[in-house]
């Protein structure tokens, strides 16, 4: 009878040559596993996990949350706020809201108007959640980026290191840069439509700082003026209002119990956050003069929060008082963190 039992190779029956091959295979596998682990570790170190966050317009790292009670999540202080990413011709922007039901509701909240020839995916009536990415392709439209200047302010700081009434320029002023991206449709050389997609501070302005002497001639001659800026460096100074918005803010604050230093702190933060553009719109979803996140938070001060600078500033002052105790408290935090 034929023997159909399968011959089983045992460890004892292996030859020396077979043992050598097995050792070589195991060594190779070990090297590959080690290389894979090292490669994964290298990739992780080079490409750390990115957490979705919001940020100040001037935070180059874009990793600090501003104007939200929670500084790690785009939802900010309102747990009901959700966010959806919208891409138009490849450019991304986050739209925040509280009542998103479908694609159309997101576009409405983001004030994104569709053109007749736009293609949208998913469809307008499709349900959305925070994993949804709405893609809009606009034929014949280009994303155009322009820069515009942000005026600098003049700040006067008193110092006893200079004789009474004497002035000295400590820092020359320099205009900042506001970057605006618009969706522009043209027919030939004629602009048919132009809609702002994002607008934020690219480079913050540098204030012109003037030292104003409060000391006596005798103290000046004794050598105390060797470094007149040192005695004034800790002072926030008095800022000269520039433009109608700042003039209103100055007059309103002084008539409502605020100080000149509070106004200087206001000007500094708003200049760095939005360049004093009422409709400044960061890709993170932050909006307006104070870059509120989301902008709809400012509705607590008025339904015209999207267009009225007075409403936006009143919300800003209330926010600073509630979170930092004062406007100057927010200013101190901003200096250390470049957001507030």
TrEMBL record:
Biased composition, class Low complexity, residue ranges: 216-235
Nucleotide-binding in keyword set: no
Signal listed as a keyword: yes
Keywords from the UniProt entry: Signal
Signal sequence region: none
Pfam annotation, one family: DUF348
Annotated region (Disordered), positions in chain: 216-237
SMART domains referenced in this protein's UniProt entry, alphabetically: G5 (SM01208)
Family annotation (Gene3D superfamilies): 1.10.530.10, Resuscitation-promoting factor rpfb
Domain G5: 136-216
Protein name, as recorded: DUF348 domain-containing protein
């Amino acid at each position: 009878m034929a023997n159909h039992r399968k011959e089983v190779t045992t460890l004892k029956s292996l030859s020396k040559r077979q043992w050598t091959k097995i050792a070589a295979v195991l060594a190779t596998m070990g090297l590959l596993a080690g290389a894979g682990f090292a490669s994964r570790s290298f990739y992780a170190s080079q490409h750390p996990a990115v957490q979705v966050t919001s940020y100040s317009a001037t935070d180059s790292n874009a990793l600090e949350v501003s104007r939200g009670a929670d500084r790690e999540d785009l939802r900010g202080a309102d747990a009901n706020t959700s966010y959806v990413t919208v891409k138009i011709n490849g450019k991304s922007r986050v739209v925040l809201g509280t009542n998103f039901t479908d694609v159309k509701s997101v576009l409405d909240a983001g004030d994104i108007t569709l053109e007749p020839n736009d293609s949208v995916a998913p469809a307008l009536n499709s349900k959305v959640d925070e994993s949804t990415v709405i893609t809009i392709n606009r034929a014949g439209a280009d994303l155009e980026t322009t820069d515009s200047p942000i005026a600098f302010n003049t700040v006067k700081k008193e110092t006893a290191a200079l004789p009474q009434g004497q002035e000295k320029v400590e820092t020359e002023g320099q205009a900042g840069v506001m970057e605006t991206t618009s969706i522009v449709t043209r027919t030939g050389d004629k602009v048919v439509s132009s809609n702002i997609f994002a607008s934020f501070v690219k480079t913050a302005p540098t204030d012109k700082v003037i030292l104003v002497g409060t000391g006596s001639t005798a103290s000046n001659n004794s050598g105390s003026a060797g470094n007149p800026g040192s005695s004034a460096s800790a002072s926030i100074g008095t800022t000269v209002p520039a433009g109608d918005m700042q003039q209103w803010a100055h007059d309103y604050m002084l008539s409502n119990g605020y100080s000149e230093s509070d106004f200087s702190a206001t000007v500094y933060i708003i200049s760095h956050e939005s360049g004093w553009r009422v409709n400044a719109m960061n890709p993170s979803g932050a909006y307006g003069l104070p870059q509120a996140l989301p902008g709809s938070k400012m509705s607590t001060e008025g339904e015209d929060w999207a267009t009225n600078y007075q409403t936006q500033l009143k919300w800003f002052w209330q926010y600073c008082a509630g979170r930092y105790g004062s406007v100057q408290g927010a200013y101190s935090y901003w200096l250390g963190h470049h957001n507030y």
